[in-house]
């Protein structure tokens, strides 16, 4: 799912809801790994616990592959580069940072939606309505039925 470059919609509400949902655990990937295994046990068999950038990238790829195994489409997934730290770059535009954040939020939306569709899932629920502005009212209404 691509968001529109010229969208005037703020992602603040979606960001706050995603943050609330993720903060059930302190580490984004750890909590997302647990969430994925609650939806479909055994999808994630290993987590690289080394404190290195390569381990983080490895875990990110494991996470994205697991999302695919849960049925999320490639267009619903952010790119690993979307989580790259841009704070030290002088020429980064606000639009680029906002685009990357929206891509991550879109993945969180689809993962949360997938969790809520699973009858055996008993974890925290994501307030999908908070993502309405980010994804568009029409998309939310079509997908919530």
UniProtKB/TrEMBL annotation:
GO terms for biological process: regulation of cell adhesion; regulation of signaling. This is Calponin-homology (CH) domain-containing protein. It comes from the Eukaryota. InterPro entries: CH_dom_sf, LMO-7. The lineage of its organism: Eukaryota, Metazoa, Chordata, Craniata, Vertebrata.
């Amino acid at each position: 799912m691509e968001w529109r470059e010229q969208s005037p919609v703020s992602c603040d509400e979606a960001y706050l809801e995603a943050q609330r949902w993720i903060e059930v655990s302190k580490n984004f990937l750890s909590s997302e790994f647990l969430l994925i295994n609650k939806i479909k046990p055994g999808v994630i068999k290993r987590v690289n616990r080394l404190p290195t950038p390569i381990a983080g990238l490895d875990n990110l790829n494991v996470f994205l592959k697991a999302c695919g195994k849960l049925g999320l489409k490639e267009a619903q997934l952010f790119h690993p580069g979307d989580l790259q730290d841009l704070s030290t770059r002088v020429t980064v535009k606000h639009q680029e940072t906002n685009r990357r954040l929206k891509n991550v939020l879109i993945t969180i939306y689809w993962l949360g939606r997938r969790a809520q569709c699973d009858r055996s899932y008993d974890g925290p629920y994501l307030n999908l309505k908070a993502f309405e502005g980010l994804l568009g009212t029409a998309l939310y209404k079509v997908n919530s039925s």
